[in-house]
């Protein structure tokens, strides 16, 4: 179950990182996804058949079970799921089926292949685990239980979908990008709601029933009253007597449930169950849930203030290593210490460590592997039993452990407070530049050069040195937006000022998009003003830099438009060379293919020059073209012509 939830979360992260432009599509489009799912089905079946054969052989003697662990299967599923996304599934869902702009539906559609491969693995695991039992778990009930548990991680995925939707749609996308803390606050707000009402979520996931009145429930209520532990209900989760577990969920007394599985109620004595209940109560009374939340909140705040959100920035790569490091080297040791503290609380509350020790011994008999091997959050059962014995026999050791836990909790509080203070310290600056950043992005999205010019006047002091602008992202956004409009309006003086600023800071940009925009806008301006040598240099730079941009967003329709503009610039350069404005080419080029009135003009001019006709009548009505840098560039070519002459004569 834990491996399944972990696999689901990793699959959800893969879905979140994929866009409709990523990957490749083969025809027919469903070929690769279906082929991979069938290959996994064959893999699961073969592994199950081998395990069944080993089970039968073990009747005559011990046979070593060889096969992939659940975590290995999760890893294989992730590789297969990545391949399914990469080879077209994301584009099928988001583009072909038209779900890309809908809320939450793209995420559901994209993750369906993972659910299919997980269903295949569950079925064949059921064949192995239940095939030898006298009373097997009914398949429908088995699937129902294993899929209902995904209700728990589904809401965090829904939160991510909400924040992603807000960050990419409507006016909110500018606010979310302009105020990075806004996304953090929205996520934290939803997280608080989920944690607060998580007992009802878990109740829905486990399909539990209220524990009926009786001696056992009365004993639990007495223990809770003794420890001032309030809860809404004690509930029993039906697992067909398979899962031995217990937990409490909730941080508020009136919104807290204690869950016990049917298997733990039947396999442990009443006295030992009292130890289990006291252990779960210890997690609450010692504040472990709130402390765990504080650790993760501290990590989130630290990443927010320390790591550049730009995916190309070097610091962003730290995310790949920081989170696993935190889980294995910070969270895991603390969680194991919390388990030991809950064990000691149970012994102290009951006045006897026997019940909790005997319950651990029973778990060791049921799950022999856990005797010596601990997990991510639990020490090994042998270590827990050994520590309990020492704790209640040696008062000095107990005192040292309590002092150690006080230090751990103090460190956790510091781990939260320090990044919280760092974050609060960044807010004044964020508010200062947020309006400017939001306005710049909104102006850029609509090519509103007037808005960009107004912002440059309104925030002149900030832009002249009052703000820190890493990579000159705000400046370059305003410059290029104003330059684009000036080129459209044939205001080449204003465009020249903006492009000059962009070129001056070309080496400061941290993203190839701004570098490319600098080169292509310089080429537009050079063509429009007849600066043919600069056109040649900037056009060639833009051609190389566009390849770097395309590597970041393969298949983006905007890139195809940029390629057509570069083709037009290439054609203009060729014609300028033929008209003598540039040195003749060593290897003369033909005009590139292209569409549009500008290319029609150039082809007509090329035919007239090649045929030796008079060029002043060769469809040179430039004034009829739409105003902008293209019309101006063709006008510059026309100015190179001598009336009623052909340069080739």
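^ Assign residues to that structure.
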């Amino acid at each position: 179950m834990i491996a399944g939830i972990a696999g689901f979360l990793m699959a959800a992260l893969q879905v979140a990182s994929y866009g409709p432009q990523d990957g490749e599509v083969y025809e027919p489009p469903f070929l690769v996804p279906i082929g991979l799912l069938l290959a996994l089905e064959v893999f699961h079946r073969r592994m199950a058949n081998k395990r069944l054969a080993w089970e039968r052989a073990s009747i005559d003697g011990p046979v070593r079970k060889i096969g992939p662990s659940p975590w290995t299967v999760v890893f294989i599923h992730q590789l297969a799921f990545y391949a399914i996304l990469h080879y077209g599934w994301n584009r099928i869902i988001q583009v072909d089926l038209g779900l890309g702009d809908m809320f939450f539906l793209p995420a559901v559609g994209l993750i369906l292949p993972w659910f299919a491969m997980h269903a295949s693995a569950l079925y064949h695991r059921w064949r192995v685990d239940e095939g030898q039992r006298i009373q097997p778990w009914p398949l429908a009930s088995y699937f129902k239980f294993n899929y209902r548990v995904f209700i728990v991680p589904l809401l965090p995925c829904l939160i991510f979908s909400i924040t992603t939707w807000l960050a990419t749609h409507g006016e909110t996308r500018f606010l979310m990008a302009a105020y990075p803390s806004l996304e953090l606050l929205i996520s934290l707000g939803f997280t608080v709601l989920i944690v607060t009402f998580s007992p009802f979520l878990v109740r829905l996931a486990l399909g539990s029933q209220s524990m009926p009145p009786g001696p056992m429930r009365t004993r639990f209520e007495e223990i809770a009253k003794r420890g001032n532990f309030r809860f809404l209900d004690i509930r029993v989760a039906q697992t067909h007597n398979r899962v031995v577990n217990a937990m409490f969920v909730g941080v508020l007394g009136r919104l807290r449930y204690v869950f016990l599985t049917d298997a733990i109620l039947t396999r442990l004595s009443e006295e030992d169950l009292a130890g289990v209940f006291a252990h779960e109560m210890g997690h609450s009374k010692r504040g472990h849930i709130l402390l765990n939340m504080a650790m993760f909140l501290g990590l989130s705040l630290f990443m927010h203030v320390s790591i550049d959100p730009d995916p190309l920035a070097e610091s962003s790569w730290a995310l790949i290593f920081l989170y696993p490091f935190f889980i294995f080297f910070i969270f895991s040791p603390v969680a194991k210490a919390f388990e030991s503290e809950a064990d000691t609380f149970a012994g102290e509350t009951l006045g006897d460590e026997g019940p909790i020790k005997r319950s651990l011994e029973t778990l060791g008999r049921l799950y022999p592997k856990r005797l010596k091997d601990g997990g991510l959050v639990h020490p090994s059962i042998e270590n827990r039993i050994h520590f309990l014995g020492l704790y209640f026999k040696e008062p000095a050791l107990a005192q040292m452990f309590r002092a150690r836990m006080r230090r751990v909790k103090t460190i956790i509080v510091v781990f939260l407070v320090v990044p919280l203070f760092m974050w609060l310290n960044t807010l004044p600056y964020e508010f200062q530049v947020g309006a400017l950043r939001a306005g710049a992005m909104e102006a850029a999205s609509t090519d509103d050069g007037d808005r960009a010019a107004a912002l440059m006047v309104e925030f002149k002091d900030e832009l002249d040195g009052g703000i820190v602008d890493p990579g000159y992202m705000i400046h370059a956004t305003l410059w290029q937006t104003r330059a684009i409009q000036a080129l459209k309006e044939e205001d080449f003086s204003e465009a020249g000022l903006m492009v000059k600023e962009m070129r001056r800071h070309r080496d400061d940009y941290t993203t190839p998009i701004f570098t490319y925009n600098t080169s292509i806008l310089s080429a537009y301006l050079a063509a429009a003003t007849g600066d043919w040598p600069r056109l040649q240099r900037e056009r060639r730079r833009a051609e190389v830099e566009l390849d770097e941009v395309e590597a970041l967003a393969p298949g983006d329709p905007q890139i195809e438009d940029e390629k057509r503009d570069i083709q037009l610039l290439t054609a203009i350069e060729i014609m300028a060379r033929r008209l003598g404005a540039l040195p003749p080419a060593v290897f003369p080029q033909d005009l590139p293919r292209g569409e549009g009135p500008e290319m029609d003009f150039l082809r007509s001019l090329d035919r007239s020059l090649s045929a030796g006709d008079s060029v002043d009548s060769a469809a040179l009505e430039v004034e009829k073209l739409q105003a902008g840098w293209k019309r101006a560039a063709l006008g510059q070519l026309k100015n190179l012509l001598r009336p009623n002459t052909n340069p080739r004569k």
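Confidence is low (pLDDT under 50) at residues 309-316, 644-649.
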